[in-house]
Amino acid sequence: MSEPDPVLVSVTDGVLTLTLNRPDKLNAFNEPMHFALRAGFQRAADEATIRAVLLKANGRGFCAGQDLGDRDPRAGGPPPDLGSTLERFYNPTLRLIRAIKKPIVCAVNGVAAGAGANLALACDIVLAARSARFIQAFSRIGLVPDAGGSWSLPRILGEPRAKALALLGEQLDAETAAAWGLIWRCVDDTELVDESEALAARLAAGPTRGLGLTKQAIQAAAGNDLDAQLDLERDLQREAGRTADYAEGVTAFLEKRKPSFQGR
Ligand code: LHQ
């Protein structure tokens, strides 16, 4: 019997929804899932009618990271080149998530471990179910945080918390993740689907180009000093000021009505 699609893809009202779909393996990454997820994000980047992305998962967990069954050391042979796995699979997807000029919402249910946790954290707005947990599981198997985790964790949390999470591999519950600023919010388990869909729909009805430029500006800040960031703001604001959505936003304000943004 053929395997079901590892990532389900649907589009509704400008929201592209990507649903990780290997629930029996807690949505651990194998090659088909890597390719399908990348193709989904690429579609979001390419199609103008897509104005927001929602990443979520089927089953009782979000994603358990790399499928550890794919490289069973008991099979013998030379050690694997995990750097090549990152170069071929994870890194292009992580770069794409950051480069897409559209907001990406992630809904985390259950466990997000290893690269699965860091995939979630790479998205723009992360909602988690109250019962969700994040595990930097790498140290449990002798690896280092990847999928951008060694970059994002110290930036968001500072070294002390980043190091403890990465070195100890202990789980972090969703409420603490929210309190520490690692994610946007945690919500009741029963609310996760509705809240994440509503958030993605709201963003998809927004001024897409302005939102994309905002994402770009905020992401650039970590590598810029204030002078460079002020220059960037000037350039991006110039671009935003030329969009039809800016004209609509101001017109709607002056006419005391809700704006109708077209994403242009
Ligand atoms: C899994 C997995 C999994 C396969 C659960 N693989 N089956 C790594 C290497 C290569 C290149 C570069 O990058 C990376 C990055 C990484 O992501 S390294 C980190 C890899 N992930 C982990 O080390 C996590 C491994 N999983 C776990 O520790 C636990 O499963 C967690 C804590 C995630 C969940 O625990 P439980 O809720 O108790 O669930 P479970 O352990 O019973 O898992 C349910 C099923 O899913 C089970 O299968 P089974 O047939 O026995 O029901 C697991 O074997 C399977 N599964 N994670 N990563």
Automatic annotation (TrEMBL):
<comment type="similarity">
    <text>Belongs to the enoyl-CoA hydratase/isomerase family.</text>
</comment>
<dbReference type="InterPro" id="IPR001753">
    <property type="entry name" value="Enoyl-CoA_hydra/iso"/>
</dbReference>
<dbReference type="GO" id="GO:0003824">
    <property type="term" value="F:catalytic activity"/>
</dbReference>
<dbReference type="InterPro" id="IPR014748">
    <property type="entry name" value="Enoyl-CoA_hydra_C"/>
</dbReference>
<protein>
    <submittedName>
        <fullName>Enoyl-CoA hydratase</fullName>
    </submittedName>
</protein>
<dbReference type="InterPro" id="IPR011968">
    <property type="entry name" value="PaaB1"/>
</dbReference>
<dbReference type="InterPro" id="IPR029045">
    <property type="entry name" value="ClpP/crotonase-like_dom_sf"/>
</dbReference>
<dbReference type="GO" id="GO:0010124">
    <property type="term" value="P:phenylacetate catabolic process"/>
</dbReference>
<dbReference type="Pfam" id="PF00378">
    <property type="entry name" value="ECH_1"/>
</dbReference>
